[in-house]
Amino acid sequence: MADAAYQAKYLSVARLLWDSVNGNPGDIPSDYCEHLSHEYMDGDVSFAPLISKLDYTEHLESWEIDEAIEMLGKVSPGDWPDPQDIESISAEALLHDFSEYEFVEDNLGTAEKTERVLTEAISSVFGAKVSEIRSEKGYFAHHKNSFLQEDDGTFAGTFRHDGKKFMFEVFPDEQGWTVTYRMSAEDLDKLPEISHQDDEKKSDYTRQVRHRGWK
Questions:
Q1: 68, 38, 67: which is closest to 53 by C-alpha?
Q2: Domain map of the chain by residue range?
Q3: Whole-number Cα distances in Å, 23 to 15, 17, 115, 147
Q4: Using one digit for the tens of pLDDT, what is the confidence trace for 184-198?
Q5: What is the pTM (predicted TM-score) of this model?
Q6: Residues contacting 50, CB < 8 A, separation 6+
Q7: In a 10 Å sphere around its CB, with 0-12 CB exposed, 13-18 middle and 19+ buried, how is residue 118 labelled?
Q8: Burial code of 23-41, b = ≥16 C-beta within 10 A, e = fewer?
């Protein structure tokens, strides 16, 4: 199967297998997993057949499971142990605790650094600690989304604070870098009603984009 054809199909097949066992990966028959095997033209391989060895998945959202499977979908075999030597893969560690997966340092190390730098930069402007730096579609920083960086150098995505989601952009300008952010529309709609005399203040809050630059 051609690389493009495989990448277009493997995630949906893996999701079908996952759903068929109600999210209990250990119940996926090994011979079914082997249908997810693939060797790429550039020498990389798919570790998607290891989905039956994913562990600590109980509290993950559906999109996080997909993200974990995508991260297994194309890897350099030299960066990973032999598949036969892998007894289990912590999905939570794969997505969150990058220090436990030093054998994929190129991708995961960059993702961790991207999230850490953006967290600190945005927090310094926001005035409080923010968390959960993600793409606008809810994915972690990853090589497939250019680690949240657009062609013009702008980093864009979402973060969370106090249970609310915010959209952000961090972009270069003549003074250095500038951060802008705004609350997501769905969370703005959830804000409680305020008295009539505060309508003007509320209007300013919903439209205001706060930003600050630094060198």
A1: 68
A2: 3-96, 112-214
A3: 9, 9, 28, 28
A4: 988 888 888 766 555
A5: 0.45
A6: 33, 72, 83, 86, 89
A7: buried
A8: eebeebeeebbeebebebe
